[in-house]
Amino acid sequence: MSKESRQRQRFRNAAAQSSRPRGQRSRIFKWAFLFAMVAAAGALALVWNHHKNAAHLVAHSPALPGFRPPTDFASLCKLTPAEIARCDIAVMNLLCAEGLRGSEGLNVTNCLERLDNLAKYVKRETDKNLHRFHEHPDEFNHSEGYYRMMMMVTVLQQDTGIHYNPAHAGSPDEPIEPNQEFFADSKDVFIHGLTRDSGMGTCSSLPVFYTALGRRMGCPLKLVRAKGHLFVRWVEEGQNFNIEATSAGFVSHTDNEYRNWPFPYTAGEEQTESYLTPLTPVQELATFLGIRGQCCMADGNLLHAVGAFAQAYYKEPQSVGNQRLFAWAERKAHEAGALPKPMELQYGIQTLEIPPGPMRAQLMTKKAELEARLNSGEPAQEIEAEFDGLKAEIVSRR
Predict the structure, then answer these.
(1) How far is CA 317 from CA 32, 309, 312, 326, in A?
(2) How much of the chain is in helix, strand and coil states, percent to nearest 5?
(3) Which of 96, 101, 297, 389 could form a disulfide with 305 if both were Cys (CB 3.0 to 4.6 A apart)?
(4) Three-class DSSP category at 143
(5) Over the stretch 341-352, which tens digit does the pLDDT of each residue have?
């Protein structure tokens, strides 16, 4: 079991213990919108590079006529679900790494060109050796898809040196790696770390890399989740099988094995977190946004972490994990005084505890009125004084 899998479990447990589910979509939307605007402002300094890369990014989407892919993180956040469905998984993943520690000098165009060249090389080697499948189909489970995936894994690992980062491959009895260490370098969890010579990755990046490369070769690959883990699935009529991207050599686990590894989970979790189900493009993006949020938390950038988790939750609201991570990060940002004033006030109102007693209904009504006024766009300064008065009234009645 990798350090990454155990790390993610601790991250989820911490979130579950420190937050309460809150489903107010208006608040999530405000955070998601605010974060998109902050990202847009930060992108202004890079506008010339984005302008130069735009034509290249379009050229890397030949199968998507009429769609102009995003060229920066801000434009990625603004895509509609229909547009996300037409976006290259590699583009989404690379743009989610923008501005993170470890992505300094990130050149999306160069990364995509590396992917394209690798896909051509792997396909050439695969087709050149196709006779092996026809001569000995029993060695490949009587499946050409099985053969093609085995060749892809073999060529990537043996010819290009792509592999799991040994720094994150500890044994189960080792201490859990601290968040700030594991998520400190985005190259370990996003695919730009795999587009270098002898690139290294983890179960956050290797399955995405395999999926992006396989799709360029025409393979029907999907990204799939287990608890604290990602893997790849070949999805074709009459033929489905899994590809474990973190192993040395080609390994194909059954779904039941993933129900217990790297962590067991309940039937309810399987439904809410879409475990073992091929991810939709929107869910793929939500997954990358969640990873981005974890990197921001590790870097101490609490405001951007909350924004990334809000984006993930807004795009995949049925995920209890996204909900808890957003609430956990928001609480941490509140404790650190990192929230903008309107968000700080909204957080304070929504988390205000109303004690039991004869005045509870009246106090609850006042709280709901303050929240409604804030959501309607009324200036925070006009509401803050009344909120302070409500808190004082609650204290006086205890």
Answers:
(1) 12, 11, 8, 11
(2) 60, 5, 35
(3) 297
(4) coil
(5) 888 988 899 899
